[in-house]
Amino acid sequence: QVQLVESGGGLVQAGGSLRLSCAASGRTSGNYVMGWFRQAPGKEREFVARISGDDGSTHYADSVKGRFTISSDNAKNTVILQMNSLKPEDTAIYYCAAKRPWASEYNYWGQGTQVSVSL
Questions:
Q1: Rounded CA separation 92/102 (Å)
Q2: Cα(103)–Cα(12) distance, rounded to whole angstroms?
Q3: Closest by Cα among 40, 38, 32 to 79
Q4: DSSP 83
Q5: Are 97 and 48 in contact (CB under 8 A)?
Q6: Which sign does the torsion angle of CA 102, 107, 112, 117 carry?
Q7: How many other C-beta atoms lie within 10 A of the C-beta of residue 75?
Q8: Distance in angstroms (rounded) separating the CA atoms of residues 1 and 107
Q9: Which residues have CB under 8 Å from 49's CB, separation 6+?
Q10: Handedness of CA 91, 32, 111, 5 (dihedral sign)
Q11: How many other CB atoms sit within 10 Å of the CB of residue 94?
Q12: Distance (Å, rounded) from C-alpha 5 to C-alpha 100?
């Protein structure tokens, strides 16, 4: 089992920045794909970004490309989502997730952290 705990959410004005962290514990040995997702009120959960544990490759949703950066600190079992130039439409609960590279779906999820962006 893998446990994920997010932190770093909060309230920020449009144009500002936030840095989310996801700390992993438990069976963290081996390669995982780590992802960030978000869910706004009344909307479906959507993909934000992911990073591969083996080669560090990244992928972003078009809506955040150029503004958000995902990175990992393998020594600390932590994944970071740096969010810049935030917009009110980025307001959502942000979730960290993990899966093995061969898995079709993410099967480990954190509890989420609220990000609110005001005008």
A1: 28
A2: 35
A3: 32
A4: E
A5: no
A6: positive
A7: 6
A8: 10
A9: 35, 36, 58, 59, 60, 61, 64, 68, 70, 81
A10: negative
A11: 23
A12: 18
Tokens of 112: 């989420």
Residue recorded with tokens 């990244």: 58
Residues in the chain: 119
What's the burial of 43, exposed, middle or buried (CB within 10 Å: 0-12/13-18/19+)?
exposed
pLDDT tens per residue, the chain (119 residues)? 899 999 999 999 999 999 999 999 988 888 899 999 999 999 999 999 999 988 999 999 999 999 999 999 888 899 999 999 999 999 999 999 999 999 999 999 999 999 999 99
10-13 vs 113-118, strand pairing mode: parallel
Residue 94 token pair: 């942000």
Alpha helices of 31-95 — where are they, by DSSP H?
none
C-alpha 64: how far from its chain's center? 12
